[in-house]
Specification:
The protein is α+β, with helices and mostly antiparallel strands and 360 residues long. The chain is 48% helix and 20% strand. Helix 2 packs antiparallel against helix 3. The protein is flat, with a radius of gyration of 26 Å. The relative contact order is 0.10.
């Protein structure tokens, strides 16, 4: 079977399934739970079927124009048909590509909110200052997209740096646009404290986790060890006078989450559980993804936190993403969040291309 025949078989199957769903949804005896499930599938398939219809109309147009363009009749009509034929031929690959993209399996996490974790890596105070700058970069980027950015916890160094910082980012398609930010971000610059003006290299790690609901991840209380302690660091006297800080250890995996920003122990526990749930969900998601993609290494990298993904060189004013070999000489605009989409868009396109190659 040729690649074209194989594609046609897939398209026929999608159109048939869409028609079956339409018939089923017209049945008044269908239970409510089944209606919700089938309606979701129907709405997901509708844009695919519309794309297939546009592709097939263009294919039919091509078949009609071909004999007219070859016909030895009226030269004016033939020239007109030939011009139209070229225009239709140029449109056809774009329509085929659009349909193939619609057929790609979707990452169910793409539309979820995200939990952002930024940690200072190697480089001491300079790494902590860079971690704080990255955290603010994502905060500004979220504002530019109209997303809600809620700081969960910040552990400051006292000199303006962050040892680690966590936030939830809520809005449409948050995880889809931020998921390739996970990894090691490296900075090269002259620290303000460096008298001799030597360039230092330090790093921070970023993790972007899809937010999980209770229905996604069930956490058994008996699997948790919960310790309470007195909050430390900024927050005022009232924060520090009670054991309001919470540390949760998930015994089966050894994951540990601490939360101390709130004055209420109950609120700190709820926030810590939210982060724990996201980390457990991401572990499951990564395991499924690794299984699905065992035969290939994604062009945009694995998103592993130990993988160096980007270098920010301040003296030269450039930012380089090593996964897609893209360098932008506009470091200020990247750090303000303005130019971050220039990386995000290419990363998403590369991921699409890799997944297309996998199914073709």
């Amino acid at each position: 079977m040729t690649a074209q025949n194989s594609l046609d078989v897939k398209l026929d199957r999608v159109v048939r399934r869409h028609a079956e769903l339409s018939d089923s949804l017209g049945n008044p005896a269908l239970p409510g739970s089944e209606v919700a499930k089938l309606s979701k599938e129907y709405s997901e398939l509708t844009p695919v079927v519309e794309g297939i219809a546009a592709l097939r109309r263009t294919q039919a147009e091509l078949a009609d124009l071909a004999p007219l363009a070859e016909d030895g009749g009226d030269p004016e009509m033939r020239a007109l048909a030939q011009a139209e034929l070229q225009a239709v031929k140029a449109r056809l690959p774009q329509l085929e590509q659009a349909v193939k993209l619609l057929l790609l399996p979707k990452d169910e996490a793409d539309e979820r909110n995200a939990i952002l974790e930024v940690r200072a890596g190697t480089g001491g105070e300079e790494a902590a200052l860079f971690a704080a700058a990255l955290f603010r970069m994502y905060q500004r980027y979220a504002a530019q997209h109209g997303w809600r950015f809620e700081v969960l916890e910040v552990s400051e160094t006292g000199l303006g740096g962050f040892k680690e910082a966590t936030a939830t980012i809520s809005g449409g398609g948050v995880f889809q646009r931020l998921k390739f930010e996970s990894g090691v971000h490296r900075v090269q610059r002259v620290p303000e404290t460096e008298a001799s003006g030597r360039i230092h290299t330090s790093a921070a790690t970023v993790a972007v986790l899809p937010e999980a609901e209770e229905v996604d991840i069930h956490i058994d209380e008996k699997d948790l060890r919960i310790d309470v302690f007195r909050s430390s660091g900024p927050g005022g006297q009232s924060v520090n006078t009670t054991d309001s800080a919470v540390r949760i250890t998930h015994l089966p995996t050894g994951l540990v989450v601490s939360q101390q920003d709130e004055k209420s122990q109950h609120k700190n526990k709820a926030k810590a559980l939210k982060v724990l749930r996201a980390r457990l969900y991401e572990r499951e998601r990564q395991a499924r993804e690794a299984e699905r993609a065992a035969s290939r290494k994604s062009q945009v990298g694995s998103g592993d936190r130990s993988e160096r993904i980007r270098t920010y060189n301040f003296p030269q004013g450039r930012v380089t993403d090593h996964r897609i070999n893209l360098t932008l000489y506009k470091i200020d605009k990247v750090m303000s969040g303005e130019a971050l989409d220039e990386f995000v868009d290419v990363l998403l396109a590369e991921d699409q291309a890799a997944r297309l190659a996998e199914v073709e």
